[in-house]
Each structure stands twice: as C-alpha cells, then as structure tokens.
Design brief:
Domain HTH marR-type: 1-138
Shape: globular
CATH architecture of the largest domain: Orthogonal Bundle
Protein name: MarR family transcriptional regulator
Number of domains: 2
Strand content: 5-15%
CATH class of the largest domain: Mainly Alpha
Order of helices and strands: HHEHHEEHH
Keywords: DNA-binding, Transcription, Transcription regulation
Structural class: mainly alpha
Number of strands: 3
Pfam families: MarR_2
CATH superfamily of the largest domain: Winged helix-like DNA-binding domain superfamily/Winged helix DNA-binding domain
Number of helices: 6
InterPro entries: HTH_MarR-typ (IPR000835), MarR/SlyA-like (IPR039422), WH-like_DNA-bd_sf (IPR036388), WH_DNA-bd_sf (IPR036390)
C-alpha cells in the first residue's frame, strides 16, 4: 500500500484506538464518548455558552440527536440550558460546576494517556507530527469549504 493511502488508515486507527482508551478511562465516571465529546466542544467555546444548532454542527449530527444527548447531560447535572439574551427562541448550553469537574477529570485522563501514547517520541518528532497533521487538517477544511461553496453556487 502506498504511503499516501496508508496515512489515512494510520490517522484513523490512531484516533480510534485513542478514543477507545479514553472511553475505558471515562466509563467509571459515567460519561460516554459522545457526551465527553460534547462537553469538550462546549468547553472550547468559552463562557458564552453555545446554541444547540451550533453545537450540533460542530458535532456533525442533527439537532434532535444533540437535543437528546443534552437532555441526558442536563438530567445528570452536567449542562444547563439558558435563554439567549438576544433571541428568546434560542437556548444557550452551559457546562455546570459538576460538568466542569468532569472536564477536569477529562484533562487529567488526557494528560495521563498522552504520556502513554507519546512515550518514546522525541520533541522533534512530535513537532513534525503536529505540523503534518495541522497541514492535513487545513487541507481537509479547505476542501470541505470548497465543496460547500460549489453546492451553494449550484443551488443559487
């Protein structure tokens, strides 16, 4: 198999295996992969909360599926919905203090797992890996934007 195809498989496998390892660590805390991913996305957004539609887009899933997950997280006391101050039709989603505790656990688990996953790699190797993966991510985002732009042009 040529390296141009192998890289896709490697990236996928590394991501999948790391997710499985992370899941194993988070399972005793009662948080599923989808839930910890949602909490992680909310935590990256800062203090303003996120609209459910925006969150669904970031997660790559529908508003209904996101709403169901938010219902479960809200029932567990990890997130709360608050009316948007500018648009009463929209609820903004915020991480609660209990959810912040889970996020803290996630950071701790992530750091510990990074130590295991990155063991034996020199800082220079990690820097090159970071540069390569960042470039691949940028290319993918550009391709997705171009595809969306082409679709809008065809619809227009």
């Amino acid at each position: 198999m040529s390296s141009e195809f192998r890289i896709g498989f490697l990236v996928h496998d590394v991501s999948r295996l790391r997710q499985i390892l992370f899941d194993q660590e988070m399972r005793p805390k009662g948080v599923t992969r989808a839930q910890w991913w949602l909490l992680a996305q909310l935590s990256r957004n800062g203090q303003g909360g996120m609209a459910q539609a925006e969150l669904a887009r970031l997660l790559g899933q529908g508003k209904v599926a996101t709403g169901s997950m938010l219902d479960r997280l809200e029932a567990a006391g990890l997130v709360e919905r608050r009316p948007d101050p500018l648009d009463r039709r929209i609820n903004r989603i915020f991480v609660t203090a209990k959810g912040q505790g889970i996020l803290g656990d996630m950071v701790e688990v992530g750091r510990r797992l990074n130590g295991l996953v990155l063991a034996g790699l020199a800082p220079e190797q990690l820097a090159v890996a970071d540069q390569v993966l960042t470039a691949i991510k940028r290319n993918l985002r550009r391709a997705l934007r171009d595809e969306a732009d082409a679709g809008e042009a065809a619809d227009g």
